[in-house]
Design brief:
InterPro entries: Met_Sox_Rdtase_MsrA_dom (IPR002569), Met_Sox_Rdtase_MsrA_sf (IPR036509). Belongs to the MsrA Met sulfoxide reductase family. Has an important function as a repair enzyme for proteins that have been inactivated by oxidation. Catalyzes the reversible oxidation-reduction of methionine sulfoxide in proteins to methionine. It holds the Pfam family PMSR. It is globular and about 40 Å long. Strand 6, helix 5 and strand 7 form a beta-alpha-beta unit. The protein has a single domain, classed as Peptide Methionine Sulfoxide Reductase, Chain A (2-Layer Sandwich), CATH 3.30.1060.10. It is an alpha+beta fold and 229 residues long. Strands 7-6-1-3-2-8 form a six-stranded mixed sheet.
Length: 229
Amino acid sequence: MKLHHLLIAASIMLPPGLALAGETVTIVPPPALDQKTSAKSQTVVLAGGCFWGVQGVYQHMKGVTSAVSGYSGGNKQTANYDAVTGGDTGHAESVEVTFDPTVVSLGKILQVYFSVVHNPTELNRQGPDSGTQYRSAIFTTSAEQAEIAKAYIAQIGKAKAYSKPIVTTVSSLEKFYPAEAYHQDYATIHPSQPYIAYYDLPKIENLSKLFPKDYRAKPLLVGQAKASN
């Protein structure tokens, strides 16, 4: 487990049966520009704080066929938690989201990202976690994805959905490195861990309430996703 999360967990007292919400939700409008593709599968990599919660949300989203925690933005030699936690490897904790565009569009994936996954106005931090490894970033796998993501950020900014400027960066994905096995499916495996209960489970609950048509009650875990592919 992450050391800083151990320290945070030690300071959070959760009364029996009480789930706390770590962050305020901001609802953003749907994207004006979205995909025009008939492809059966696409991948985008999203960074928005600790990957436990990001992965947890997308594993509960219909049309997502795989959500894997990992590292993006640095090189292979430093693509491990011990190195990334130092904050100077260039990597961001991120999640590789593979989805079926005939079921869920990139625009919907991004609407959830900006609404319930994280706060895109926080620079190099999310909640209690700080450092460049917790930055807000979208790593795209096509020119169309980059165009949609950049247009959406401009749209949200113009709509003043947030009181502060969005700091999310958009860049082409060079490489994604899956995280260590113990980081995978963490929110599902450890729902009573105080950090998960306080910061991550509310995100999944917000997905179910705000995007009920896109919510999948039973998460698609990493092992299950591999078996189905």
